[in-house]
């Protein structure tokens, strides 16, 4: 299979959606009032054999928006230090972080012949809610992500491996997971991307995707 055919297959695989794995570390559980502290996204691609693979990682430390709430319990959980001088040097505004992530996502959508991105996340509703709230807050008109559809690796991990915790699902899939590095948006997103690809590829290797294609072909005929 050529690279062009692989790109075409990606567009067919998820109904013209391009899966993009997203993780956000936040200052709490309220997307309307709690700050986004870190955001990361991993775009995915497909090889000539039809295997789904992680492509590029984009990750940013984020400065809390004006008036945002940050719970100390959230900082204790993630280990993020807002007063860390290195963090302060590299942190960007919410609008800048979204702009820097959306740009390569749009490029990946176009290069794979897709129409829109679909968010992949571990407990995806949480990340999707914060992403949508930030998009609205920043007045972004062209959000490349579908506004409500998402793929949840916690649910898929429970189905495939009987595990819903990210670390446990990764280990069940044969993916190394360092608990000391967890709760970094970059690290969690990259492990989630590996997990999602492993589950999609396993389904393909077991013949499920080929069967689905044949059944769709019969229906369309």
From TrEMBL:
InterPro entries xref list: Ribonucl_H (IPR013520), RNase_T (IPR005987), RNaseH-like_sf (IPR012337), RNaseH_sf (IPR036397)
Cofactor: Mg(2+)
SMART domains listed in its UniProt record: EXOIII (SM00479)
Residues forming coiled coils: none
First-level EC class: hydrolase
Active site (record annotation): 183
Exonuclease domain location: 18-205
Site residues, Important for substrate binding and specificity: 29, 77, 126, 148
Binding site for Mg(2+) 2: 23, 25, 183, 188
Details of cofactor binding: Binds two Mg(2+) per subunit. The active form of the enzyme binds two Mg(2+) ions in its active site. The first Mg(2+) forms only one salt bridge with the protein.
UniProt-listed Gene3D superfamilies: Ribonuclease H-like superfamily/Ribonuclease H
EC assignment: 3.1.13.-
Binding residues annotated for Mg(2+) 1, in chain numbering: 23
Keywords of this entry: Exonuclease, Hydrolase, Magnesium, Metal-binding, Nuclease, tRNA processing
Family classification: Belongs to the RNase T family.
Described purpose of this protein according to its UniProt entry: Trims short 3' overhangs of a variety of RNA species, leaving a one or two nucleotide 3' overhang. Responsible for the end-turnover of tRNA: specifically removes the terminal AMP residue from uncharged tRNA (tRNA-C-C-A). Also appears to be involved in tRNA biosynthesis.
NCBIfam families on file: RNaseT (TIGR01298)
Subunit structure: Homodimer.
PANTHER family: DNA POLYMERASE III SUBUNIT EPSILON, RIBONUCLEASE T
Name the record gives this protein: Ribonuclease T
Upper classification of the organism: Bacteria, Pseudomonadati, Pseudomonadota, Gammaproteobacteria, Oceanospirillales
